[in-house]
Request: fold
Amino acid sequence: MTGIRAKQKEKTRRALINAALNQLDPQTSFFSLSLREVAREANIAPTSFYRHFQNMDELGLTLVDEGGLTLRQLLRQARQRLADGGSVIRISVEIFMDFIANNRGVFRLLLQEHSGTSKEFRLAIAREIDHFKAELADYLLNERKLPEHLARLQADAMVRIVFSIGADALDLSAAERAELAEDTILELRMIARGATALQKPKGEYNDPT
Amino acid sequence: MTGIRAKQKEKTRRALINAALNQLDPQTSFFSLSLREVAREANIAPTSFYRHFQNMDELGLTLVDEGGLTLRQLLRQARQRLADGGSVIRISVEIFMDFIANNRGVFRLLLQEHSGTSKEFRLAIAREIDHFKAELADYLLNERKLPEHLARLQADAMVRIVFSIGADALDLSAAERAELAEDTILELRMIARGATALQKPKGEYNDPT
DNA sequence: AAATTGATCTAACATCTGTTCACTGATAAA
DNA sequence: TTTATCAGTGAACAGATGTTAGATCAATTT
Reply:
């Protein structure tokens, strides 16, 4: 099963995947990559590409899978670190920022191609983000005892904020990213506070905003 | 000044602008457009393009200007309708949704190319959105009497939410858009409530989120 | 040991791209 | 009326792209 041949094939497959991810930078979206560029970066002939993927779209969807995997690792790591106690929001934001810094290529794909040009792509990415959102909504439902609709909306708002800021943070220095993280934390706290406030609408007064 | 010649030139210039805007659809970002495609759609020879713009980038930046104009019209219209009274958030969201429905091309550019591939583009769009954010922060500062930092952050959060949802809403039916608008309103109310709550942190209890 | 498989290569194709050049002909200026 | 301007044209270029076809030759299977 793990013959020399299969191993070598897997190796150049990874080379292709990494070639694509490494080519993604602020000026280069996945769809501006050409098959030939990727093959060149992976040091194989353009024609060899077809031994691994039917076309660039298939490579791209593979990368999106990779992105989903990364998001799930993020959640797992967040849960672990939360067991030690501390502010949920702060810890989550810090982990998120770490992840985008250490997985730039994949997050670029997720955050940029999110409103991108290919329907299949957008749907695949939306699916991954929806998983993420659903897990967050679940947490809010169980731990924070919010009504379902409110939990869903709070999760939606939070994920939109975090991913939007994340896109901005992708190419900042560690210091700038830390600054943005503080803003993010405050914005998320607004949302959390607001959600619990909306839950008990018998507050002092009803802000007519 | 307004000779036959100048008039005709302005007309084909508009034709080029509209050709580009009309080609933007869910599957086609501005940077996937070719000069030749745009010229074809505008019914001129590819070479004639250069009589109007130095290259596609210049056309693109012109479209971004168009987008800024649209955003300013949106604000003006919102202010007018607000004079008649009503929920600020509801009115604003409804106007926004109307605008994206009626200016799909321009908003696609603003919302898609926002995290796009060209630095010049991203900066130009960020500039327009920052104007928008600044006007909103001003309003929150003056009308809602929030401290500056909080006003800035609230505006930031709101704009991120609205533009993120806006991108999703671009190609929905009117009914689906209206549904999304309701969710948007609730999410924005969370933020507004949360911001005023954070302002007076002596509330009943401090949620350790 | 012989036969087969399959990941890789080079060469070649048709097609699209941005851009240049010299030209035309109606409008504008003299 | 003569002259100059200039938006628009078609032909042609060099380069990049996706994709096909055929050959190579080491790893695998028989």
Remarks:
- The CA atoms of residues 41 and 81 of chain A lie 37 Å apart.
- Residues 3-5, 8, 34-36, 46-47, 50, 55-56 of chain A lie near DNA strand D (CB under 10 Å from a C1').
